[in-house]
Amino acid sequence: MQHLEHDQQLRAAARAIYDVVYPSEEWTPVPFAEAEKFGTVHYRNAVAAAIVARAQLRGEHARQMVLI
After folding, report:
1. How far apart are the C-alpha atoms of 26 and 8, rounded to whole Å?
2. In the predicted model, is pLDDT for residue 51 greater than 60?
3. Cα–Cα distance for residue pair 44/52, rounded to 1 Å
4. Gap between the Cα atoms of 46 and 17, Å rounded
5. How far separated are the first and last CA of the chain, in Å rounded?
6. Rounded to an integer, what distance in angstroms lies between the CA atom of residue 43 and that of residue 50?
7. Average pLDDT for 18-33
8. pLDDT confidence band for 52 (50 / 70 / 90)
9. What would the pLDDT profile of 56-68 be if each residue is shown by its tens digit?
10. Residue 52's CB: how many other CB atoms inside 10 A?
11. How far is CA 27 from the centre of its chain?
12. Minimal CA–CA distance to 13: which of 63, 62, 56, 68?
């Protein structure tokens, strides 16, 4: 599981994604802080999305495609 205490920018992106994708208790039973604490699937999905988004914004996807 990815721990984001050291990367506040990535944590903020994961939280923003979490809040948009899971807007209410109908979508996820716990708020972001609890999901982070317990490493729920919802939290892990938000972190994965934040990592992919960061790579896209940095242009890293172009370099990765060359290696494939």
Report:
1. 27
2. yes
3. 12
4. 6
5. 26
6. 11
7. 89
8. very high
9. 888 866 555 555 4
10. 13
11. 16
12. 56
Please compute the mean of the pLDDT values over residues 22-48 and round it to a whole number. 91
**Alpha-carbon gap, residue 68 to 66, rounded angstroms:** 6
Amino acid at 65: M
What's the pTM value of the predicted model, to 2 decimals? 0.77
Distance CA(3)–CA(67), nearest Å, equals 28
12-44 burial, b for 16+ CB within 10 Å, e for fewer? ebbbebbeeebeeeeebeeebeebbeeebebbe
Residue type, 66: V
8 A C-beta contact, residue 14 and residue 46: yes
More confident call, 60 vs 21: 21
